[in-house]
């Protein structure tokens, strides 16, 4: 018991310090994404607090950070705009439609957890994963470039002159501290130290630099100061619970749920690799869904796992649920009590932290393996990276998985072969090798010459694997063709699953299939539980 307690508390200091660092990094991200979605900064901050806290406590991946994200914010823009158009300007209906959509999004995500759909993240190929990581690193980098802009005469323009050079110098200093500090002392949280040092230089040096406070005011916000999240009872009065409302928010909720789960589960996989541990995907689906339901009810914009903040947390030593809890509670503390101090933090320090996250996130090894992996995998990697930047994560990952699956099916379809030989009694033997499935059925059928073959034909599947219903149908049709011209056909070395299904299709297969002690044992993908008992116990 003592060793268990020691193990659980050994990382407390790292978890607390990394949590504080993440809380600081969450502020401008949440505010920026709120502006992207067209809502008040506090809507983004409340979402980051509530989602971060709930997923930290109940999620399937200790150490992973969740909050308001840009991937979801870009989808919410049109939702809020269309919602506002449905009522008077003073009603701000778009915000309430957003809350209702986030609640429905959470319900969909919880259903994904209940039905254990999280396991399908295992179907995502490695090139898709690398493309996702590279694309997301590019998206994070591009999002930070917006911090190099300022408002002049009510117009957003690129910084120029001294302000630009001060910004660049502070960003470079932050990155330099984060790069060099671990070489001197690995126990100090480099991101937090960098933020504190750069903040002190700006505050005590009187430098003219953009801060979190000026960033919020330039975006039209009033500041970070706020109270505790309040239950939004107006959702149920301002948003009519009708079929028309469901048709409006339903598609948005599905897209948001898909993007949120894909980003969360892929981030979970990435953190698994970094920490050499394993998270629970279905539990994460339930936690993300529950968090979004609560967030929608209490005035948040919804969210999911944040790869940038998660990597900051892991790199800073955060490993347990405590780091995520500290980050969420720290963010709430800033909102309630320390808004004035946080507003003085220079944007440059936070941009520098995020640039280091970009460098750590990007899979630089993808350049080294360009000439070492199949062209199809390289194409998928580049495609997913590009689609992540141009569209969103859901589109990129779905496209990558589909293309990878098609390439896999095409390659395997070409591997079906048939060796032909004759026995002493004149029987022609076809020895099949390679996978027999929907993609290879056409090539399989082309191997046989029904009219020219002798009266006795034997097909041996010892080096083949019958994979699906299309393959069974091809075998059934082939037997029919040989019998139609009066020729005897024998099938050998089929799995017992195949035999059961063929016997059910037609009793005549009892005379066609030859039983052997060395018959292969495997389950069909189409019928994973087709053989729960010995074949002899079936009645056909």
List the helices and strands and how they pair.
Elements: H1 2-9, H2 12-37, H3 41-58, E1 66-67, H4 70-85, H5 93-114, H6 126-145, E2 149-152, E3 155-158, H7 161-184, H8 190-205, H9 212-218, H10 235-238, H11 243-275, H12 281-297, E4 304-305, H13 307-315, H14 321-336, H15 339-342, H16 347-361, H17 365-368, H18 375-390, H19 393-413, E5 417-422, E6 428-436, H20 441-445, E7 456-466, H21 469-484, E8 488-492, H22 496-505, H23 509-512, E9 513-514
Parallel strand pairs: 6-7, 7-8, 8-9
Antiparallel strand pairs: 1-4, 2-3, 5-6
Helix pairs in contact: 2-3, 2-4, 2-13, 2-14, 3-12, 3-14, 4-5, 4-11, 5-11, 5-12, 6-16, 6-18, 6-19, 7-8, 7-16, 8-16, 11-12, 11-13, 11-19, 13-16, 18-19
Cα-atom Rg, whole angstroms? 30 Å
Helix content: 55-70%
**Strand line-up of the largest beta sheet:** 5-6-7-8-9
* N/C terminus separation: 58 Å
Number of strands: 9
Q: How many distinct helices?
A: 23
Keywords for this entry:
single chain, 540 residues, alpha/beta, Transcription Regulator spoIIAA, 2 domains, five-stranded mixed beta sheet, two-stranded antiparallel sheet, 8% strand, elongated, disordered N terminus, transmembrane helix
What can you see in these coordinates?
The chain has 540 residues and is of the alpha/beta class. It has 2 domains: 1-405, no CATH class; 415-514, Transcription Regulator spoIIAA. A hairpin with a 2-residue loop joins strand 2 and strand 3 (155-158). It contains 23 helices and 9 strands. Strands 5-6-7-8-9 form a 5-stranded mixed β-sheet. Strands 1-4 form a two-stranded antiparallel ribbon. The chain has a two-stranded antiparallel sheet with strand order 2-3. The chain is elongated. Helix 5 runs antiparallel to helix 12 (281-297). This is Sulfate permease. Keywords: Membrane, Transmembrane, Transmembrane helix. It comes from Mangrovimonas yunxiaonensis.
């Amino acid at each position: 018991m003592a060793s268990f307690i020691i193990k659980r508390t050994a990382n407390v200091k790292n978890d607390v310090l990394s949590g504080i660092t993440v809380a600081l990094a969450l502020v401008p991200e949440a505010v920026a994404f709120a502006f992207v979605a067209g809502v008040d900064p506090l809507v983004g901050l409340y979402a980051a607090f509530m989602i971060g806290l709930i997923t930290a406590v109940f999620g399937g991946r200790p150490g992973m950070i969740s909050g308001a994200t840009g991937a979801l914010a870009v989808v919410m823009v049109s939702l809020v705009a269309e919602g506002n158009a449905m009522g008077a300007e003073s009603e701000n209906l778009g915000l309430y439609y957003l809350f209702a959509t986030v609640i429905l999004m959470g319900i969909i995500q919880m259903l994904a957890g209940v039905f254990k759909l999280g396991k399908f993240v295992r179907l995502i190929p490695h090139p898709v994963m690398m493309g996702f990581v590279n694309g997301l690193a590019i998206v994070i980098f591009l999002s930070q470039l917006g911090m190099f802009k300022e408002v002049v005469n009510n117009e957003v323009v690129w910084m120029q002159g001294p302000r630009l050079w001060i910004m660049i110098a502070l960003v470079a200093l932050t990155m330099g501290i984060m790069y060099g500090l671990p070489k001197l002392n690995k126990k100090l949280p480099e991101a937090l130290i960098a933020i504190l040092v750069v903040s002190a230089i700006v505050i005590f040096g009187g430098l003219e630099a953009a801060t979190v406070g000026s960033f919020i005011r330039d975006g039209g916000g009033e500041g970070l100061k706020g109270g505790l999240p309040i239950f939004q009872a107006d959702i149920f009065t301002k948003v009519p619970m009708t079929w028309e409302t469901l048709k409006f928010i339903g598609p948005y909720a599905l897209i948001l749920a898909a993007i949120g789960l894909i980003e969360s589960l892929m981030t979970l996989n990435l953190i698994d690799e970094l920490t050499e541990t394993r998270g629970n995907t279905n539990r994460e689906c339930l936690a993300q869904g529950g968090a979004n339901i609560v967030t929608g009810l209490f005035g948040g914009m919804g969210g999911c796992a944040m790869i940038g903040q998660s990597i900051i947390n892991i790199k800073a030593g955060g490993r347990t649920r405590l780091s995520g809890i500290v980050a969420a509670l720290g963010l709430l503390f800033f909102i309630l009590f320390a808004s004035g101090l946080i507003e003085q933090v220079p944007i440059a320090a936070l941009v520098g932290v995020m640039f280091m996250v970009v460098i750590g996130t990007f899979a630089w090894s993808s350049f080294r393996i360009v000439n070492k992996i199949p062209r199809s995998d390289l194409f998928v990697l580049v495609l997913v990276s590009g689609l992540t930047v141009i569209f969103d994560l859901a589109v990129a990952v779905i496209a990558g998985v589909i293309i990878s699956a098609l390439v896999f099916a095409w390659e395997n379809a070409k591997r079906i072969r048939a060796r032909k030989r004759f026995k002493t009694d004149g029987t022609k033997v076809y020895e099949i090798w390679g996978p027999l499935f929907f993609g290879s059925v056409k090539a399989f059928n082309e191997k046989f010459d029904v009219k020219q073959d002798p009266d006795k034909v034997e097909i041996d599947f010892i080096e083949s694997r019958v994979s699906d219903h299309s393959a069974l149908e091809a075998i059934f049709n082939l037997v029919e063709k040989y019998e139609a011209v009066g020729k005897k056909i024998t099938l050998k070395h089929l799995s017992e699953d195949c035999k059961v299904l063929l016997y059910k299709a037609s009793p005549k297969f009892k005379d066609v299939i030859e039983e052997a002690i060395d018959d292969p044992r495997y389950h069909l993908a189409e019928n994973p539980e087709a053989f729960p008992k010995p074949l002899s116990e079936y009645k056909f």
